[in-house]
Specification:
With 341 residues, the chain is of the alpha/beta class. The chain is built from eleven helices and 13 strands. It has two domains: 285 residues, Rossmann fold (3-Layer(aba) Sandwich); 38 residues. It is globular, with a radius of gyration of 25 Å. The relative contact order is 0.13. The structure holds NADP nicotinamide-adenine-dinucleotide phosphate (NAP).
């Protein structure tokens, strides 16, 4: 039977990839984010995949917005089976240089709104005695990094909250609280971030794809687990952070400046912390090489080279045997140009 899935942060990155993944499974979706334009695009993508979808433009930090979202889901589809909360924003900067209102809005979005979503979802699940809440944490909910104080504060709070919620719902075997904790993911969150550090942020390597994280999210909905970590270095980072805190703290600053910030300058900006920027929203952030594109262009070049080689072979074979004419006719003339890629 198809599930009813509420998904916040559905217009970009991991949330958008998860919407596509759930849609491909035939689940019924209620999609939320602030930007109505992008949300409508995602709705159409999911409908093309055959899913029943409602898009509900929502600012998760607005009072009452999450209750209204849940009410829409119940009114449209009769129940909620899975609630996935991915909505988040980031700010780069030295803690004391980040404007207070920006820091607080990051915490409001990434922690307090996630708590609000959990409250709404769990009230619903408790009365239904079943349901799965999936919160999107981060490796930065287990370790810390400089210039990301608002985000790190929120993710540490969220991880603590998820643990408490799991403990409190032990009396309900049908209710699950799951945490998906990605490392670096190729999404637009980095270039959309507020920034007071002067250089645009980037995901430090190794970078994984939002589609991979989306599969982990859907995997949690299929078979709930306490936590799914997605990222090859997550465990190593946690071990280093816990076992060698002095060394970790000495290295993390230089590593962050090297791998976590680009050379591209950026003036102080609030990014999308208070308002969405629909043009910047997509599944991928462009931080990974476009492998399918690369394969297509290598394939195109190989096909063109093959066609040129065949043409040359025919020219060489044709000349002495037939007329000796310098202008090739027949089969050589009929060769079509290699396709442009
Ligand atoms: N990318 C990574 O490397 C990475 C790593 C670890 C964890 N994560 C986590 O994964 C989750 C998704 O991140 P992402 O990288 O996919 O980011 P993203 O591409 O920037 O997407 C963020 C989503 O949140 C929505 N959003 C932001 N503020 C909102 C608000 N006030 N109300 C409603 N929706 C809001 C955005 O849409 P609108 O702007 O239109 O509202 C967008 O749909 C986040 O929880 C993030 O912390 C990401």
């Amino acid at each position: 039977m198809s599930r009813v899935v509420v998904l916040t942060g559905a217009s970009s990155g991991i949330g958008r990839a998860a919407a596509r993944e759930f849609a491909g499974r035939g689940d019924r979706l209620v999609l939320a984010a602030r930007s109505p334009e992008t949300l409508a695009q995602v709705r159409d993508e999911c409908r093309r995949a055959g899913a029943e979808v409602r898009d509900v433009p929502t600012d998760v930090t607005e009072p009452g917005a999450l209750d209204a979202l849940a009410a829409t889901a119940v009114a449209e589809f009769g129940r909620i089976d899975v609630w996935v909360h991915t909505a988040a924003v980031m700010v780069y900067g030295r803690f004391e240089e980040i404007p207070v209102e920006v820091f607080e809005q990051v915490v409001r979005t990434d922690l307090l709104a996630a708590a609000g979503a959990a409250r709404v979802a769990l009230r619903h699940f408790r009365s239904a005695r079943r349901g799965t809440l999936i919160l999107t944490g981060s490796v930065l909910g287990h370790v810390t990094a400089p210039y990301l104080s608002g985000y790190v504060t929120s993710k540490w709070g969220l991880h603590g909250l998820a643990r408490v919620l799991r403990q409190e719902s032990r009396d309900l075997p049908g209710v699950h609280v799951c945490l998906v904790t990605p490392g670096s993911v190729d999404t637009p969150v980095y270039q959309q971030a507020a920034n007071y550090v002067g250089r645009i942020g980037r995901p430090p390597p190794p970078i994984t794809t939002p589609e991979r994280v989306a599969r982990a999210v859907v995997g949690c909905a299929d078979r709930p687990r306490r936590e799914i970590s997605v990222g090859r270095l997550n465990l190593l980072m946690r071990v280093g952070f816990t076992v060698l805190p002095g060394l970790y703290d000495r290295l993390v600053g230089p590593l962050m400046r090297l791998g976590g910030l680009t050379d591209r300058p950026v003036p102080p900006t609030e990014g999308v912390v208070f308002r969405p920027h629909p043009d910047g929203e997509a599944v991928r952030g462009g931080w990974l090489p476009d492998l399918p594109g690369l394969v297509r262009s290598i394939g195109g070049t190989a096909a063109a080279a093959g066609a040129a080689a065949r043409r040359l072979r025919r020219q060489v074979a044709f000349r002495p045997a037939d007329t000796g004419a310098t202008t090739p006719t027949g089969p050589v003339r009929r060769q079509s140009r290699p396709p442009l890629h």
